[in-house]
Amino acid sequence: MRVPPVLASETAHRLGAEFLLAARFLTRLPLGAAPPLEPGDLARAAWAFPLVGAGVGIIAALVFGAALSLEVPPLVAALLALAASALATGALHEDGVADMADGLGGADHDHRLALMRDARCGVYGVLALVIAVGSRAGALAACGAGWGAAALIAAHAVGRGGMSVALYSLPPARSDGLGAHAGEPEPAVVGWALGILILVAYLMLGWAAGLAALAAATIAMVLVGETARRFFGGQTGDVLGAIEQVGEAATLIAAAAWAP
What we know:
Layout: H1 5-26, H2 41-45, H3 49-69, H4 74-89, H5 92-103, H6 109-117, H7 123-143, H8 145-169, H9 178-182, H10 187-232, H11 237-257
Helix pairs in contact: 1-3, 3-4, 3-8, 3-10, 4-7, 5-6, 5-7, 5-11, 7-8, 7-11, 8-10, 8-11, 10-11
């Protein structure tokens, strides 16, 4: 059945707008001023999260490869690659993992949510950042140039795809804030996000390493999601960032274990 040209054009325009919205939200790249977000806009654009993640991964991979070509030590090259991705995203997800870790130190539900909104970084937050950066840098350094570049692209796609699933599977912890404003994606949107992240993992790592990475990332992200459900009552923007970080780290660690 042939799709009418007008309908095809409208669909392409909508998908392009949703991809641009996701890119503006997940990165700090110069993509023009973003219009005010309406409730549910991010949920509709959640299918594009892993694509945007793959783009950030490409930026990090280019820096990693360039550093290694200049004979920079692998661990330093890995840290430079992580710095590049943090600059591209405004350290959005690193901020989330630190805030969620600080929130876990709260005495009760309301105190935990208040701690997550505190701009100051506590001991738990600092430790979480050290572990998040250290585990990713160590795993990436062990991968080598070509495999490491591929692992970076896969890891960023998988981590952002996990955010899409979390928006669908976890209720908002607050009535306000990013988690509530984003809305809940439709099952089809989540299905597309999963399909894209699986495809990227396969193209970058192959079936064996790709499946191992997806399994490791799934376990890690589910554990963080269930921790958030228990201690906070669901997801917030910080929880989404923490889910991205552990998914990224788990993917890189699995890729390092399968490095050729």
